[in-house]
Structures are given as C-alpha cells and as structure tokens.
Amino acid sequence: MxxxxxxxxxxLETKKEMLREIGVKSAEELFAxxxxxxxxxxxxxxxxxxxxxxxxxxxxxxxSRNKTSGELVSFLGAGCWPHYVxxxxxxxxxxxxxxxxxxxxxxxDLGRYQxxxxxxxxxxxxxxxxxxxxxxxxxxxxxxxxxRMALMITDRHEILVPRTMSPERLAILQTYCxxxxxxxxxxxxxxxxxxSLEDLKxxxxxxxxxxxxxxxxxxxxxxxxxxxxxxxxxQYGALFIVGVEPLSLGLLTPPGEYGADIVCxxxxxxGMHMYFGGALLGFLACRDDEKLMSTVPHRLITIxxxxxxxxxxxxxxxxERTMFAAREKAKSFTGTATALWxxxxxxxxxxxxxxxxxxxxxxxxxxxxxAIKRVSEIRGVKVPAFKASHFKEFTVNFDSSRKSVEEINRxxxxxxxxxxxxxxxxxxxxxxxSLFCVTEIHSRADIDKLAAALQEALQ
Amino acid sequence: MTPREIGGYHAVAWKxxxxxxxxxxxxxxxxxxxxxxxxxxxxxxxxxxxxxxxxRKMPPDLPELSEPEVVRHFLxxxxxxxxxxxxxxxxxxxxxxxxxxxxxxxxRSPKIAELHPLQDPETVQxxxxxxxxxxxxxxxLSGMDEFSLQPRGxxxxxxxxxxxxxxxxxxxxxxxxxxxxxxxxxSHPCNGGSPAAAGFKVVTLYPDEETGYPDIEAxxxxxxxxxxxxxxxxxxxTGVFDSNIEEYVKIxxxxxGLVAIDQANxxxxxxxxxxxxxxxxxxxFNLHKSFSTPHASTGPGSASIGAKQELSKxxxxxIVNFDGKNYYLDHNRPHSIGKVAEFYGVIPNVxxxxxxxxxxxxxxxxxxxxxxxxNNNYLINRLIGIRGISLPWQKAHPFRLQEARxxxxxxxxxxxxxxxxxxxxxxxFGLQDMETSHEPWIIPEPLTPExxxxxxxxxxxxxxxxxxxxxxxxxxxxxxxxTAPHNAAISRIDQTPSSEPSRWxxxxxxxxxxxxxxxx
Lengths: 459, 520
What we know:
The structure holds two protein chains of two kinds. Chain A is α/β, with parallel strands linked by helices. Chain A has helices at residues 12-22, 52-63, 87-93, 96-100, 106-127, 139-154, 167-177, 197-203, 226-235, 290-293, 323-326, 339-376, 405-414, 444-458, and strands at residues 73-74, 131-132, 158-162, 182-186, 210-215, 239-244, 262-266, 282-286, 301-305, 312-316, 393-397, 417-418, 421-422, 433-437. Chain A is globular, with a radius of gyration of 26 Å. Helix content of chain B is 37%, strand content 9%. Chain B has 17 helices and eleven strands. In chain B, strands 1-7-6-5-4-2-3 form a seven-stranded mixed beta sheet, with helices on both faces. In chain B, strands 8-9 form a two-stranded antiparallel ribbon. The chains are: A alpha/beta, B alpha/beta.
C-alpha cells in the first residue's frame, strides 16, 4: 500500500477513521453520483509511480537533450526574446506565497494586489496611459481583446492592420474576430517599410472599428507616422490601437502621446525567461474613459483607502462588467491569467528605474546596429530590408546567395549559432529573408562570430 | 476576549508604502550590461538618429530604488499574500492542492527556461518528447484521441472548444443555422462567456429543484435545428455529478450538435471516469487545478483541450507529433482553427504536470480522487451539524465529489450575518477565505470549500471548529462577525472607487492626477 508523501490522509487507518465518521463502509459509496455503467474500472496505462529521485533523474535526462539559447548563441526573437533576467526576478517569483496563492480577497492577499497595482502603474508610465488592466496571456491575445473592444464600442465590423504585423499575432486576431469582423491588411512602403498612409486612407471608412499598428514592427523597424495614423483613424470614428515591445519605450515616444486609445504589448522581456515560448505576459492599457473601460474583458484593480489612516487598500473596478458576473452578456472571457509574471515585471522595472530602462534600450539599439553593420559587410546579403530606424530586430535577405534560410541556419548551427527566424514563407515579397534579434546579452564577440559564420555559410 | 485573542492569529501588517513612495532620486537596482567601446565607435550615436517625433522626451516615471530595497519591498508583499503553502487554503472550484517542490525545481532548470520556441527541432527533442508523452497521458486519462496544450486557462480552453464546434459546423455548411450554444447555469460562467465571445447565442438551463441539475425534458425543449452544442461543467461546483450526461450526449448528437465538458473539477473523477468513454466530443483539464501546477497568484495556469478523432483535425496548431524517430511540431493541419495564443502553451506547467503524473502513476491517480472525495465528505459531515448551515440537494446527493456548496441562508435569516461576513471572519482565525459561488447565486448565501487530497484531517477538523465558532458568534455576538476582519493586515476597505470614476485609479499616475484635482 502506497502512503503518498503529498496525500496526508492516504494511510489506511486515517481513511478508515474518516469513513467511519462519514458513516460509510467504503470510499466507493461516496461516488454514488456517478452511474455504475459509465465508471472506469480498468487500470490506466500510465508509467508506474516514481520516487522524487527517479523523477528528477528522468526529467533531467530528457531535458539534457535540449540545447539552450544559452549554450549556443541565439539570434531568434519574433515575439519571444532573449534578455538577461536579474536574479532578483527569479527570487521573488519563487516566493512560495506568491507562487501558491490564487483567488483570495484583498484582506488575505493584500501583497499580491499591491504588486498588481504597482505593475499596472509602471506599465501605465511606459505607455503613457492611465488605465492598465490585469495582465493577460500574451501580446497576440490582448491584441485580440483590444480589437473586440473596438467592435463593441463602435458596433462596426472591420479591423485594419499593417501587412507587417506578426503572422503569429495576426492568426490569433483572426480567431478572435472569426465571424464577427473582417481583418484587412494595409500595405507598407517598399522603401521605408512604413505603413502606407495612402493605402490606409483608401481602405478606411465608416465601417472601420479600429486601426491597429505595431511599434516597433514585427520586422524590427519603427513606425514614424504613428501620429498621422491616429489622426486618420479618429477622423473616421475608428479607435487607434497600438501594440508595443516595452523595452523600446525607454527611448521611443509612448503611444499615449500619439493618440492611442488602447495599447497592448508583450511583457516577456521584463524579467521572464523564454521557456520555449511558455512564459509570455500580455498587457492591456487604455484611456481613463468609462465607455472604453466597460468593454475591458479583464479585472481592473484600483487603489483605495481603508478605515485606518495611512493604510492602502485595493478593490475591483466595475466588477459587474466581466464574464464572472455577466456571463454571456460580457461577450468576452477572462480568468486565470499571468499574475506571477506581472509581479515579476514590476520587480524588473523597479530594478531598472527611469534611467536604467533608457540605458538598456540604448544598449540594445547599439548592439543591434553593430550587428546590422557587421552583417551588411558580407557580400551577397541585404540588411535590413527597409530604410528605417530599427530597435532590436532586423531582416537579412539572402536572395543573391542562392542559399535558402534553412540551409544557412543549418550551417550556422554547426558553428553553435542559432540563426534568425526564416520569414520567407510569411513575407514572400521580401524574398529569401531571415529575422534576426540582437539584445543586451550579445557581446561584440558573439556578433563578430555570427558575421564570420554567416560569411562562411554563404560561400 | 478581543476578536484578536479569539482568532489566535494576526496577519503580517507592514503598512508597506506603494513603491513610488520608496527610494530616492538617482538610485539604481540593476546595472545594464555594458557596450564595448568598439561597438560604440562603430555605430556612433544611434539615439540621435531616431526620428524626432518618435524620440521619447520625458523618461518614464519608474521608481528609483537600490537592489536591497526592491527585494525587501517585494518580500514584504509576498509575506502579505496567503498561498497554499501558508496555511489552510481550500478555496472552492479552484482545487488548491499542494504544488510539489520537485516539480518546481525541475521546471526552473535553464535546460527549459532558456529555450526559444523557434529553435531547430533537433535542439529541443527533450522538451518535445515531454510534451508528446504528456499529450498521450491526457488522452489516457480522458478517453479522448488527441490533445492540444495551447490554451492558457479554463476560460480559454472553453473558448477554443467553442471555436472547434464552430469550425465543425462551418465545414458541414450548417454554421449559419446553428448559432445557439446550450449551457447550464451551475457551470462555470466561462461556459456562457467564452461561447458568446466565439459568436454564439447562449441558452442557459436551470437546475431541477429535486436533483440539482437540469431535467432531461428541459434539454429536449431547448434543443433545435439551431443547436450548435452543449458546453457545461461536470462535476458541478456543487460537488454533484450530473448523471444525465449520457442522455444529454445522445440528445445533442441526435440534434446534430457537439458536447464539450469543462473538467475544471476533474480532481474527484481522475482514474474513475473518462469523459470520452461517455461519448463526449471535447473536454479540457486545468493543469493548475487537477494536475498540481501552482496557481501563481492567478496564473500562469494552463488548460489542455482534448478531442475525439473526428474533431482532432480542428485543434489549434501546432500539435507535437512523433515520426518514429524524432519529435516535431505539426503545423500541417489545414482544418485547424489556427492559433488561440502565441506558440505552444505554458510549457513550464506542462513539465510540472508531467512530473506530477510520473510521481503518481495509475495507482496514485486513483488515490488522489479517492482521498479528495473522502476529505470532502468528511468535511460535509462536520459542517452540516453547525447551526445555520445547510447543504442544498442533500436528500438527492448526500455524498459529494470534490467539493460542496453550502447555504448560510438560515444563519442570515436568524442572525443577519451573511456569507460575506462569515468569509471575512474566517480570516481572523488564520484561514484563507473561501469561495462563495460563481454568478448567479442559485444557492442563497453560498459557501464552497474544497479540500483536495493534500489537506490533512487535522485541517478539516480545524475548519469545522472555526465555522462552528463563527456560527456561535453570529447567534450570540453578531457584531464581531459583521465588523470582521479584525486580525487581517488592513482594516475595512473603502469600496467607493469601485464605481466612482473620479476616485478610481488603476495606476499611480492616475491616482496623483485625481488627488490633485481633488485638492483644487
């Protein structure tokens, strides 16, 4: 008989005693609700139970077959980026209290509510918006939420997005709007990459619920005419939604200052490891406007006071609005989110401070520009595709080498380098092209190694 | 005795300032990795080359603290948070089971933390194998044919399944006609919200007074040519198993619809009932409930969705597959509903749940459901004797599965003390507050404790003792309950900002602005 370490009442005597108190002879009687004929009485085909030591051995041996982005030098980004995670971030998100709390009220869980408020406050500063919601899954799903907010507010059924939008996020947006709105692509300028204001003007109409842009774009460059896009969207009564990468906001004008109604973005760079894409953090912000807020699908937490002077408290704003209370009338869903990552992001941004985030953004830019420079010196590559300012990602085109990105990446891997993301299928108009990412973790030696290996791979 | 002496507990109360009130100008908590001089010399002043319109003029107002100050602040906030590891935490509908430390330890290995999702499959065979085997085990546990690990939480899983139902009818050319989704009111609210978000009109069935679940006839009356499917939770949050399920499946299938079961409460049926065997088409498991991954202060959780063979082609892409030699991400599924979230799911939680199943094995899994159900019925037995507490549908369902939803209606009528008061008073005794009920409250003054298998008997006795004392207080000294909590970190919260636009502030910047205009 197995006495399981996680199951305190699994010994026979305790069970007997409890069953006696309940007044039944066997535990089977307690399952009376489940009709006999649909019960499963066979033995599940699962591996035999293992001790903690065996589990560790087994899992570690499987994990040892992975080669990490730390062991190799990786230049992959595209929605999940390699950044350094300060030790304090892991220390705080390993705290058992944060790790194992869930849905307690403010009286028992004051600390996590305060941390959420602080997360919201710092994101609000980065994007220059007054309202920030409870964190959510990832950039793609909050972009979906933002689009659906616009559909509800305007009662229109069309969303305009730039052709340069991340295909991963676009796919999510399509699921979120399936059957409820058409998504139309706005072309971009072939020279500068910038969203075409002409094309926008020709496609926008009184049917348009929202215009969405990304800044920096998926392809790494900065949209300069964002304020013009905002102006055009608002002329037609559409909302203006902006998706952002947060570290870039150490240097870039925040969307709240160029007319955004809703801002969404990806918080993974703020202290989360990459986890095979499994530790993303979507954030959603909007203007302090009751009409906008009434369509936010997620919890909104406000600061408040208590009966004792000098004490802070927190509570939910307009709680009747979400699915929890309104069920189908909310026409949206919310629930278990990404709170532990929001707490981590608050820790990260507190460590950085206003000067740190500016410096970090500058370091990223300097290193990525150095990589652009070094790679552009190689014969047979064109980098980047567009004449525009880039932040941490940029495209590299190999058309004149007659080698596919796949072949080149395979060669790079032999030199222990993970090359950029192959985007030749996502953006056929860009040809045989790869999307590279360079951050503060890449040293000059790493970048020089990449340049040398690329040169070799292209020969 | 004071309320504090009676409770025998006091929460940590730091009166911790908001982080913006700490630190001082110029302080730093982190040194940014430097840039080599050669790089600087090569690229020059990159910032000045930013287009002027896009160059940030004012730095973001972030706090300025040193590293020790940041650590102390957040450590104090963690101390003011009550987790499963802190004490008695049996918040119902959430399956607050213990999250084993070994699973935490392996999930934090750099060998998983430092993997990029787009790495060459050759470099990630270890994690792909774990994902693949985990999908297989979930099939075995549910009787389904294929699983996707992509959805991030229960409501997201229901949303994804609603889209699969959509895609199924669309392919058959019947989507325009089939725009109604049936659910039951005792199902989690997401079974209303998520199908509505997927574009369905939602029809809600109410429970029969005798049985606690809808009458077969009620379902028959709701079904029509417009029915797309049935999405409901089973077992319910009342701890009642809706034993009509087989009949429901028959009726919905005959009408041309599909059935998706929300298995948020699967903890009590693990290894005892496989929903796929009953003919159900789609289901999901919450890894942060039944499979022990930590609840993480409200996520990241994870909810995997399972489909029968005929529907598996609609699952989100990619699915992990095995060609006999290598594991790979299968994107080539033309009928897929596409993406519901970025990349492949909450992978560290998949690893934790994988390790948990491995620790349990087939025998351990059945032990989980057995002890969870024993614990719950032991607690029911202890609580129904307490004055003012009753268990609705007790006659039809004297025994419950993973949890039970009690009513404190009698207590309220007798003493004026309601469930909100009791739930705040519980805190004074060192317990985490409990689930009342999801909306709407079908049971008046509801209280829903759920003691999972990891709760020791002594805790169950303590919970019963605390609720008995609070009941006594309600009948003899109701004020002490109504004015609770007395031993929490803070006193009663001013709820005005909840609905008052001039007072609510989701950010410090909004708070400062509103304070300023207040003073004017």
